[in-house]
Amino acid sequence: MDDSMPINVGVLTVSDRSASSERPDVSGQVLADGLRAAGYSVVRRAVVADERDRIAEILVEWCSDCTAIITTGGTGFAARDVTPEATLQVIERRTPGISEALRAYGLARTTRAALSRGEAGIRGSTLIINLPGSPKAVAEGLEVLLPILGHGAAVLLGEPADH
Length: 163
Description:
Blueprint: E1 8-14, H1 16-19, H2 26-37, E2 41-48, H3 52-62, E3 68-72, H4 83-90, E4 93-94, H5 96-107, E5 120-123, E6 126-131, H6 135-156
Parallel strand pairs: 1-2, 1-3, 3-6
Antiparallel strand pairs: 4-5, 5-6
Helix pairs in contact: 2-6, 3-4, 5-6
C-alpha cells in the first residue's frame, strides 16, 4: 500500500449464524486483521444477516467514508446467499477482473471456488468486493487483493498512480 494515501476500508460479514451469535465471526476477523497488517485502516466493521435489502443499505451507507468495502459470506448457492445480488443492486460499474482473479486463484487450490458467485464493482469512489465466507477463502482472497487494492483505490480517487 502507498503510505502517502490512507485507505479506509469497511469489512462486512454476511452470515445468519454470526448475526445471531450462534457462530463467531472468524472470517471477518481474518479479513480485518489482514487489511490492518497491510496498512489499511478498517473504519467500519459489522455482521449482518443474509438479507438483501439490509446488505445493500449498509453498502450504500458505508460508501460515504470507505474507499473499499470488502464483504465475506453469502456468495454461495444457498437460498439465503444474496450478497452478490445486494452488491449488484448498489454498484454503478462492475469490475469483473477482480471477481475473475479471485475465482481463478481459488480454483488453483480447490474446485469449490467455482461455486462462489462473488461480485465486485464501483459505487461513486468506493470499490465493493465480495469474498466467500470461509476463513481460508478470505485469506486466499487477501493474497489476490492486497497487491492491487492500493493502486485501484488511487486510480479511483484520482490520485497520481503509475500505469
